[in-house]
Amino acid sequence: MLRAILWDNDGVLVDTEGLYFQASREALERLGIRLSEAHFIERFLKASEGLARITDEHGIDEQTLEPARIWRNARYTELLRAGVHVIDGAHQVLRQLHGTVRMGIVTSSRREHFEIIHADTGLLDWIDFTLAREDYRHSKPDPEPYLTAMRQNGLGADECVVIEDSDRGLRAAQAAGLRCIVIPQGLTRGLDFTGSLRQLNDIRQVPPLIDELLQT
User: Fold this and answer.
1) Long-range contacts of range 67-76, CB-CB < 8 Å, 24 or more positions apart?
2) CATH, range 4-15+85-214
């Protein structure tokens, strides 16, 4: 029986991936490396490789990379503080589902950024628990974030459904033995989501699907 929804954050509840792309692109430009949108999608949203793999390919060592990483994180913080757009329908859906099943957010965002994102969104009013990057060792597409969420909350894989927007998120859910609903947004539109339970076009389509799962 379905007992919990495990929500991804960036791209599912809030529109922040474009901001992270901007901060990463600008950080790499400072090192003389061009990051295209397609490259960002492939390396960050699919492979979760981040700055380290890209800079390594250009012969940049960790000592040079670390200041760029710090600058990127600070720039991302600056962009987030300027304002975060909540995905249309997210408030309505979380409010509608609240109390029906437990709801948690399992994100790859650092806790600092997560708290800035949700300082004024009001979305956490409907959420029962959250896991951020510091709460586990290996990020998505590794299954550890979802396995940790289940372990900490006494949940079995058959009692949960994940809602994601990216290839790496889907693979993390699958590796954890979880059903995964995918709602592509912005940069993740057009990716291959083979193996997902369902691919939706809008977050407002989630409640009817949850009702179906509650009946099975």
Assistant:
1) 68/27, 68/28, 68/30, 68/31, 69/27, 71/27, 71/30, 72/23, 72/24, 72/26, 72/27, 73/23, 73/110, 73/113, 75/22, 75/23, 75/26, 75/27, 76/19, 76/20, 76/23, 76/113
2) 3.40.50.1000
